[in-house]
Amino acid sequence: MDPMAASVEEIGAAAPQPLGLHAVQHLGELRSTFESGRTRPLAWRQSQLRGLLRLLAEKEEEAFRALHDDLGKHRAEAYRDEVGVLIKSANAALREVGKWVAPEKVWAPLVAFPANAQVVPEPLGVVLIFSCWNFPLGLSLEPLIGAIAAGNAVVLKPSELAPATAKFLEDNIGDYMDATAVKVIQGAPRSGSSSWSTDGTRSSSPHRKISGCPRVARMVMAAASKHLTPVALELGGKCPCIFDSASVGTGRNLQTSVNRVIFAKWSSCAGQACVAIDYILVEERFAPTLIKMLKSTLKRFMADSDQMARIVNARHFQRLSGLLKDPAVAASVLHGGKLDAKNLCIEPTILLNPPLDSAIMTEEIFGPLLPIITAEKIEDSIAFVRARPKPLAVYAFTNCASLKRRIVEETSSGSVTFNDAVVQYGIDTLPFGGVGQSGFGQYHGKYSFEMFSHKKAVLKRGFLVEAMLRYPPWDEQKIAMMRHLYRYDYVRFIFTFFGLSRT
Amino acid sequence: MEESRAAAVQELRARFAAGTTRPAEWRAKQLRGVLRMATEMEAEICDALHADVGKPKTEAHVHEISLVKSSCLFALKNLKKWMKPKKVSCKADDFSLDGQDCKGAPGCCARHLRLELPSLARCVITLIHVYSIVSVLSLDPVIGAIAAGNAVVLKPSEVAPATSSLLAELLPRYIDSTCIKVVEGGVSETTAPLELKWDKIFYTGNSKVGRIVMASAAKHLTPVVLELGGKCPVVVDSNVNLHVTAKRIAAGKWGCNNGQACIAPDFIITTESFAPKLLEALKKVLEKFYGKDPLLSEDLSRVVTPNHFNRLLDLMDDEMVSDKIVFGGQRDEQKLKIAPTIFLDVPLDSAMMKEEIFGPLLPIITVDKIHESLGLINSMTKPLAAYLFTRDSKLQKQFESTISAGGMLLNDTSVHLTNPHLPFGGVGESGTGSYHGRFTFDAFSHGKAVLHRGFGGEAKARYPPYSSAKLKILKGVLAGKLGAHIQAILGFPRGK
């Protein structure tokens, strides 16, 4: 079962009024705005990005409160993972958008002379963004930055599982950005999707970007196919962490690695992150040392319960508790395992070699449970990872160049990070996105701009030079000349043209 | 049949997993194989195209053989470059809090952080389903898929059976058939493979089937490239070189499969006053190209199947438009040939103006002022290509900025297809994704981000237990402030 599949059912039970009519009205208004050309000028796009930056600065406290209400996130985590990253992205977009919108000149062959060839980025039109509850601010506004920079009108549908943040967005976006071009809608994903399907009148359907779980993603993509709407799907997967203890060594590097593993598992929304480390692979002989260091560092980092986010809701709490119910899995718990249903808290839990066919090892965990799987040789971890669906990220702590090369070449994932984890999310020169089961489409930085743009090929020709060989009636001489031209063999072409060579 | 198909797919997956398709040498060998095939089998391929659509030899050579050969050559020339990982830069505020050599200045961390984007084959298998009648063009995406290191299944259109079976026969002789397979067949052979899991699906054809392909792909969350069509408009201003304009329109419309091409001009928009002149110019050019009786010309392709022939007759004989014919109209049911036919001022709600024509019928729509053409085009679905003939640079700029189409050509038709540096693809109803040249390689690759970090420079501020002091430092680091970097590197805040 997908970690988030349950959300569709539970939403169905608690769904507000179907939002079909509102959504259709919004779409109509946004289309008019887009068609009026309002969102195209560079100045407009920059003003929106500045508006977003002002929102993040002026409403920072409210944002922290919303994230704490929804997920129990500490303000430092909220800043580090969401607010701060957004500020950085918006500033980068503001700086670079002038370059991104510029047409790119490309080569045109001499045979086309006189000709001018360019690739001109243009906005897609009205785009729809579905975001996920674990980084409800970040996953809503990061694609929004790209969509606005690309000159689109946008509808944002934040996750209803993070209602405080959804409300924060609904209450504030209109005040800081152009409300005729950027709208926030609320509601269940099912009613959301079906309402968009009713919009069959115009073909310029929204481009959709969804971050979330495969089950909802399938629904969205199937609905999008009715209008041939392109989609980008940012999903998850079981992100493995290959821990090559032999090359990491002991001492400072080992401590640094353990710090970073803890950061990537428990400090990132309590493991409820698509890029969180899902499980670790380590050589059997080094497992005890690793486990010992994890335990002692966890004690230092997570002494107070408010240092870690809570589980988002009861349903996910049940799901995660359920993973531990399997007796063989319960027997493999080495640390933690305490469940607090009232406060929706699960303490950092480490397991050693739970059965590989148990749910905890076949589904994306999306929570603070860390299985450690041992192997005889660390190289065996490559086959282990390959045998499983492609994850959003593969992590490896290692100094061994050949292992690094093998991991890059022999495994497939959205991305690979060596000697750290999760931080790749914050680097906007790197594309962020999945492959296979972890999704498709990449964003961040310039990639966000491109995701929400259509690169239009524009070729300009003059009337001056006419090549008669283009036109019927056909003969062998024309074919011969064309053969030479396609090879850009202008010399032979000239000979043939003047009848100086046999055809 | 089901078992053999599943077994074939298993074989392809096994070969991909074994790494057969990854080395540059293997990819180059396959590309050279396709090149040899296009060279050695040129006559056979032209014969098959002639059998399928009556394609004249020159057209077959120009539009199909030559394009396939130049695609192969372009891919062979650029293969190593495309495969190479691309290094990217990072800045100090991107969490690159590295210590030892880092003086805290932005940008210094490139030493510690190596960011790479290797373009790795994303696909175990790709299904390329070509439902278009320009069958050899189905090789173009195969070339890019091979260059990107994939295993491939190609399903050519059954509507062009001679070319389809020729490809099925020839390809295994020239390339590694354990990794590249051709599957033939009709509708069931088209839909059945869609139930299987692919890593990418590339479809060329019409938007109705495009929707079915995408809906099937949704079950496995398979990304798709859809090369569809649309009504490609040609706007003709009155300030043009009329003779050249007429020739280029005629070449784009009737000189390529007799209008049965996704980028063929579908209809013309011009001013009421200019229409008669344009019409005369087109008539003259058509007579020069195809003689007084075009149905007898060997240089004109036929319609691909009786179904399509009847579809086109229905469009022509529709009583809303049948009295608007101003040129042509001849048809030969035996030979499945329709002469170049021009209509003037057909109603915008006629079937001819609502569907993609995909044949030798050319409606001319007139407007009062040429600028009205922009609004008219924008009221329709986005086409694969939009054409404008004018010398007015202001109109050109307006056209470029207000019309959305897959691609755009000023003062010519169709030829942008041959430039491998231009992305070729649609937008909206005309499709999603693009290809040609490097774009095909990218379409069939996954650009994997690879980040190398060192162990140096641990920033305590990143880890719990959190405090407002740590928050302050984090803010500074993310804002690129030098002081914050220094504090972070020096392990502030002290204590926890």
Terminal Cα span of chain B: 67 Å
In terms of DSSP E residues, the strand content of chain B is 15-25%
Portion in beta strands of chain A: 15-25%
State the secondary-structure class of chain B: alpha/beta
Proportion of residues in helical segments of chain A = 40-55%
Biggest sheet: strand arrangement of chain B: 11-14-15-10-9-16-17
Largest interface: A-B, 108 and 109 residues
The portion of residues assigned to helices of chain B is 40-55%
The oligomeric status of these chains comes to heterodimer
Biggest beta sheet attributes of chain A: 7 strands, mixed
Q: Please provide the count of β strands of chain A.
A: 18
User: What does the overall shape of chain B look like?
Assistant: globular
**Arithmetic mean pLDDT of chain A:** 87
Number of helices of chain A: 20
Shape of chain A: globular
Structural class of chain A: alpha/beta
Please provide a written account of the structure:
The complex is a heterodimer of chains A (about 500) and B (about 500). With about 500 residues, chain A is of the alpha/beta class. Chain A is built from 20 helices and 18 strands. Helix content of chain A is about 45%, strand content about 15%. In chain A, strands 10-13-14-9-8-15-16 form a seven-stranded mixed beta sheet, with helices on both faces. In chain A, strands 5-4-3-6-7-17 form a six-stranded mixed beta sheet, sandwiched between helices. In chain A, helix 11 (about 250-265) crosses helix 12. With about 500 residues, chain B is of the alpha/beta class. Chain B has helices spanning about 1-15, 25-40, 40-55, 55-85, 140-145, 160-175, 185-195, 205-220, 240-255, 275-290, 305-315, 350-355, 370-380, 395-400, 440-445, 470-480, 480-490; strands spanning about 85-90, 115, 120, 125-130, 150-155, 180, 200-205, 225, 235, 265-270, 325, 330, 335-340, 340-345, 360-365, 385-390, 405-410, 425, 430, 435, 445, 450. In chain B, the strands form six sheets. In chain B, strands 11-14-15-10-9-16-17 form a seven-stranded mixed beta sheet, sandwiched between helices. In chain B, strands 6-5-4-7-8-19 form a six-stranded mixed beta sheet, sandwiched between helices. In chain B, strand 5 (about 150-155), helix 6 and strand 6 form a beta-alpha-beta unit. The longest helix of chain B has 27 residues, at about 55-85. The termini of chain B are far apart. Strand 16 (about 415-420) of chain A pairs parallel with strand 22 of chain B.
